[in-house]
Every structure is written in C-alpha cells, then in structure tokens.
C-alpha cells in the first residue's frame, strides 16, 4: 500500500543530501587552458571563476594583476545574472505542472 508519509520522508532525505552535495561543490575545481596555455582559468563546482592566469607576453606587467581580477569579477557577475534568468525561465516554463504542496521545495532541481 502506498504510504504518503514514507514518500515525504524520503523526499526530505533526498533534499537534505542534495543540499549537502551542493554546499560541497565549492571544494571541487578544474582548470582549462586556451591559446596553448597563454590563458588559464580555474573554476569551482559552483561555476564561479576562482583564478585567471594570463601569460606575461599578452599584457603589460604592471596591468596584469588588475586585469586578471577584473576578468574574474565580470565573469562571475555574468554567471550569477544568467543563473537568475535561467531559474526564472524554468520556473515560468514549469508553472502549474506540479501541485503546490506546502514544504515541497524542488528549487534545487533547477540548478
């Protein structure tokens, strides 16, 4: 026999595990290269740029650090902005598909 309370209990457990997994994403990182290593970008599991390294031959040495910081900030701002727009787009696209059940938060599925 179908037990609604068991289903909600399992959903809460899945939600808690998803939250833990999402919180640990900041500890994961990956580096990509372009231009045969002239540009290297490191991002974390939250899709935030952590570091940008530019080969010294590409820019003036006195501008290098400032340029790297500005690129990181602008890239992260764009990623945050598009994430907000994407969530709103998905919310509108799925509006009315699921019943409005108090306590049921499926917002984490749209990340």
From TrEMBL:
The keyword Acetylation does not apply. It is found in: Cytoplasm, Nucleoid. This is Nucleoid-associated protein BN8_06578. HAMAP family: DNA_YbaB_EbfC (MF_00274). It comes from the Bacteria. Keywords: Cytoplasm, DNA-binding. The lineage of its organism: Bacteria, Pseudomonadati, Bacteroidota, Cytophagia, Cytophagales. Binds to DNA and alters its conformation. May be involved in regulation of gene expression, nucleoid organization and DNA protection. The keyword Thylakoid does not apply. It comes from Fibrisoma limi BUZ 3. Belongs to the YbaB/EbfC family.
């Amino acid at each position: 026999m179908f037990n609604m309370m068991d289903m909600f209990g399992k959903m809460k457990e899945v939600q808690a595990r998803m939250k833990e997994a999402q919180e640990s994403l900041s500890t994961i990182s990956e580096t990509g290269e372009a231009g045969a290593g002239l540009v290297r970008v490191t991002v974390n599991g939250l899709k935030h740029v952590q570091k940008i390294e530019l080969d010294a031959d590409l820019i003036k040495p006195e501008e290098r650090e400032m340029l790297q910081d500005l690129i990181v900030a602008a890239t992260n701002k764009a990623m945050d902005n598009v994430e907000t727009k994407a969530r709103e787009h998905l919310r509108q696209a799925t509006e009315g598909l699921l019943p409005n059940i108090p306590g049921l938060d499926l917002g984490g599925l749209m990340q």
